[in-house]
Amino acid sequence: MPPRDTAPQFLEPLLGVVFDLDGTLVLSHHDFGKIRAKVIRIAEAHGVAPGHLSVHDPVHRIVETAREAMRATGLPEGRFWQFEAEYAKAIDAIEMEALPRTVARPGAETLLRGLAARGFRLAVLTRSSERFARSALQQTHLDPYFGYLRSRSTPGPAKPSPEALRLLLKEMGIPIERALFVGDHLIDAECATRAQVRFYALLPDPTDAPNSPMTPERFLAAGASAVAHDLAELTRHLGVAAPPHTA
What residues pair up with 180 in beta bridges, in sequence order? Predict the structure, then answer.
């Protein structure tokens, strides 16, 4: 059987596009190993048995498993809040260490300029902190394109909860059937498909994730409507022709 075409099979009228941030619009080269190890150390300090958590799991899975373990041991509710506050503060600090080396992913400005010129409402949905997300957008000069942003710091559910995406689209005034979510991770695919929002996958940039296990086949199996190798290809998928800069 020939491989499935990774180009979009249809283009319905869209009103808004939601983007993941890290790896999708910006390349931050976060030390995720350091982040995961730090969260595990904090969880163990709050009573989670050593060896119960794995550094190979994504951070949100580590946190979920830690919460379940704490509840199983009957820890008081106050310990949960202490754990939440400590790991969030630690992750925030490690994320900010990456800010000086954060750059826009090639093709990001061209794509966003073209979408904005066509009147699309644009937003960012990220598991990064509010401080890092806004600082990264400002540093890469992508901030003017985004009037909407939902981060790990935003009250309420966070990605990959589908409710996080639904709440963001409600704020944007975009029906889910007229929205598109773009991301470079299976967490993004999970969030979009559970929210019943169309998902376009972007393969990780080789300079940011040289050993990434992500493939077009994995994204398509996870529910992606299309897969792009880079933002230039995504720009072609969306039929965006960026207007020329004016003097």
Answer: 17, 198
Whether residues 205 and 119 fall in one domain = yes
| Helix 59-72 vs helix 32-45: crossing angle, to nearest 10 | 10
CATH of the domain at 193: 3.40.50.1000
What pLDDT digit, counting tens, does each position of 97-150 carry?
A: 889 999 999 999 999 999 999 999 999 999 999 999 999 999 999 999 999 999
Q: Assess whether pLDDT exceeds 50 at residue 1.
A: no
Give the span between the Cα atoms of 94 and 90, in whole angstroms: 6
CA 231, 236, 239, 243 torsion: positive or negative?
positive
Q: Read off the tokens for 21.
A: 């941030």
Amino acid at 165: L
Beta-carbon contacts of 3 under 8 Å, excluding residues fewer than 6 positions away, are 216, 217
Token code pair at residue 234: 């995504």
> Last residue of a domain, which of 73, 97, 121?
97
The count of structural domains within the chain is 2
End position of a domain, from candidates 97, 112, 144? 97
Three-state DSSP class for residue 225: coil
Q: How far is CA 239 from CA 78, 146, 179, 229, 236, in A?
A: 51, 20, 16, 16, 5
- Antiparallel, parallel or unpaired: β 148-150 and 179-183: unpaired
Domain holding 25, by residue range, is 16-29+101-237
Give a yes or no: residue 9 inside a domain.
no
Instruction: Specify whether the CB–CB gap between 202 and 174 falls below 8 A.
Output: no
